[in-house]
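re: ur question from earlier - yeah i can do the single chain one, its not a big deal. heres the input i used so u can compare w yours
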Amino acid sequence: MFFDRPDSGELAVLVHLDLSSGQEPEDPREFEELVLSAGGDPVTMVLGHRDAPHAKYFVGTGKLQELQALVEEHRAELVIFNHTLSPSQERNLEKALKCRVLDRTGLILDIFAQRARTFEGKLQVELAQLKHMSTRLVRGWTHLERQKGGIGLRGPGETQLETDRRLLRGRITNIERRLAKVRTQREQGRRSRLRASIPTVSLVGYTNAGKSTLFNRITGADVYVQDQLFATLDPTMRRVELDDIGAVILADTVGFISHLPHKLVEAFRATLEEAANSSLLLHVIDSAADERLHYIEQVEEVLDEIGAGELPQLRVFNKTDLIGMAPRIDRDDDGTPVAVWLSAQTGDGVELLFEAVTELLGEAMIEGDLILAPTDGRLRARLFEQHAVSAESYRDDGCSTLSVRIPQSDLMRILSGLNLGFEQLHWDGEPPEEHQVAGNF
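and the output i got, formated as tokens:
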């Protein structure tokens, strides 16, 4: 498996073809960055054009001869295609080139294997690898593809390949069972946050857009940050406090990429569900990237795939320091924030992000002077616990007046716990409107 990797960078010949099919072409520059992120050492890139892939070798016979010469010239150990190869194409190429051949999916899986740090992350990567490799097992077992025979070697009538596939299916089932348990635990955590009315804000975006840098800037955490693709793999969550909102859970997620392999989307569904169940998505965009519009489209596609396409979203254009733009908030015709321009590296504009998130997450706020009798001590204590009281004064009749500002949901939860109704509260002057909305939610 890919976990057994050599320590030094492997000399690699890269192959990128422009195909005349309707599918959007991959980016050769991004492909090279992926290889570097995997620890490879690209020696050359072979470019070409075909109307359709060759059935046997993906490339034509002329390009195959060119690849054979380059592999021999550079003594390359690996040939990597910026495309998805069929198992038979991979085997035929390895036989012709006499070195290992890897496709785009295998390359991304290799990077994920290196980045996985938590137990859950390693399980997810292994599941994706096993599903990918299950169709390619034959290349490793061709020398054993006959039934066992001889004294003491008579088995259950299986070839070695069949035995290995059976063991592989058992391992996949075992990992899926353990990940289902992780998914259940995550669901329990989400339900408990829902009961406590703590919203979740997830950072999503194209890989290397600066999500982890922004996450560290906001939370003061020490998440691994590197200028490479897929620097973050394991999800990280932190609790932050926002003015007028209170506690918010901020989640940093794995970056997306063009044509993200479905095996990875399936394997990381437990992690991506965190984004799919968020109150708000912060779509982090590299404002300095030439292909930023394409990257935005790719992220939107993955969000639709995981069921998060309809969630409220705020676009965060990062790296403004690289394009010399001042931080700002973009609003729609109703005055609602739709985008924030900032630099996570320098911190310029982060306060504007707080302002926009507060507006978007802001809900019905109850604000007014509440009159409490001496017997309302429990209600008074709950309001102080929620930091909802800005001032308190006492009247001649023994009652107290509290200047209160509190989200409607928090007040209703307090009243429900005390078996009180909103109509039972006494206010100094005009009662505040019960559904005074200060945001979109």
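The CA atoms of residues 186 and 270 lie 8 Å apart. not sure if urs matches, ping me
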